[in-house]
Write a structure and sequence with these properties.
Strand content: 15-25%
Radius of gyration: 20 Å
Low-confidence stretches: none
Bound molecules: manganese (II) ion
Mean pLDDT: 95
Number of domains: 2
CATH architecture of the largest domain: Alpha-Beta Complex
Number of helices: 12
Number of strands: 11
Largest sheet: 6 strands, mixed
CATH superfamily of the largest domain: inorganic pyrophosphatase (n-terminal core)
Distance between the termini: 38 Å
Strand order of the largest sheet: 6-7-8-9-11-10
Order of helices and strands: HEHEHEHEEHHHHHEEHEEHEEH
CATH class of the largest domain: Alpha Beta
Length: 334
């Protein structure tokens, strides 16, 4: 099935879901297309297979993903304590980090014995009885597709579209280095089932509000280059959101704008949330492992895409990140 994952964990996940009569499927907070599409595909396929299934995201779902949930919104965290008791299995998709589950974490920690994790990030903590990790998977959506096939649960147009949204989200529309033959083979299957890529693309990437482009303009105005133009840093402060009317959920993928510059190897985007907290997105072209930079400051992620949150003031945090990325660039011989 896959080279880097444990076959035992895959089989354990399959067996746990096959035996369950009821599931609660949870996406991570600050949800992206992968976690949401994976959650929807698994939930809807489980229902089609005759299971009781619920979906939960304890955060706002960005408006661009509304089309995935035309009839039913995912539950918020308030429903967790009762559901965690009543369902046979809790499935967490696209993360194994309790920190990405915010206020759900304490309740989930008490139910580790019934949790199944499906994740493609580098394993950190052990939070579940069954924790299937496959870092070779382009997206959690690929793993869900493999699991549904092994379970023999129905996959129709709804599931195919959700999984295509998941995989295109994490592969940057098949541009990123994680794009691989299994992801493309599955995408071919979903196309054959009737998924329309051009419609999906327009729904996901051509639905911005004017306020979002105004925010992009302000962000680009903050662009600074360091280390012989190899490191870019950008900021979005509360004042930028106030001046443009843009929302915090309209910052997804904005960090990638700086990679348009040919010399840039790494990008830092710092976003002031409401309150004292700063959210950081890190991107790298290849040479720099931004996950290592993020981990040193309490975050995590992939080599080329990582992040963290901090209560440190934005300017102080930015200075530390610039120094850390410059050190990483130097270490990489750049
Ligand atoms: Mn993912």
């Amino acid at each position: 099935m896959c080279e880097t994952c444990s076959k035992n964990e895959f089989e354990s996940a399959r067996a746990a879901l096959a035996a369950a009569r009821s599931l609660l499927v949870i996406a991570h907070c600050r949800p992206d297309g992968d976690t949401l599409g994976s959650m929807l595909a698994l939930t809807s396929s489980a229902r089609a297979a005759g299971k009781a299934a619920h979906m939960m995201v304890d955060d706002d779902v960005p408006a661009k993903y509304d089309f995935l949930f035309p009839d039913e919104r995912p539950l918020r965290g308030g429903a967790l304590p009762d559901l965690a008791e009543s369902v046979d299995r809790i499935v967490i998709v696209d993360t194994a980090a309790l920190a990405q589950l915010d206020s759900l974490a304490p309740v989930l920690a008490r139910h580790a014995g019934k949790i199944v994790v499906i994740d493609h990030h580098t394993p950190g903590e052990r939070i579940a009885a069954v924790q299937w990790t496959d870092t070779s998977a382009a997206a959690a959506g690929v793993m869900v597709a493999q699991l549904l096939a092994a379970l023999g649960w129905p996959v129709g147009l709804v599931q195919a579209e959700a999984l295509m949204a998941a995989v295109t989200s994490d592969t940057g529309w098949f541009r990123f280095a994680n794009t691989n033959p299994p992801a493309l083979r599955l995408a071919a299957d979903w196309l054959a089932m009737g998924v329309r890529l051009e419609v999906l693309y327009a729904r996901l990437f051509q639905t911005a509000r004017p306020q979002q482009l105004a925010l992009v303009a302000r962000m680009l105005g903050t662009l600074e280059l360091f280390h012989h133009d190899r490191l870019a840093a950008m900021t979005l402060r509360q004042a930028d959101f106030a001046a443009t009317g843009a929302r915090a959920d309209e910052t997804e993928n904005l960090v990638n704008e700086a990679l348009r510059i040919g010399s840039v190897e790494a990008v830092i985007l710092l976003v002031e949330n409401g309150g004292a907290q700063v959210r950081v997105n890190l991107r790298s072209r290849e040479a720099v492992d931004v996950a290592a930079v993020a981990r040193a400051l309490g975050g995590g992620g992939h080599r080329r895409a990582a992040g963290l949150r901090s209560n440190e003031p934005l300017d102080a945090l930015k200075a530390r990140l610039v120094a850390a990325c410059q050190a990483a660039l130097t270490e990489a011989g750049l």
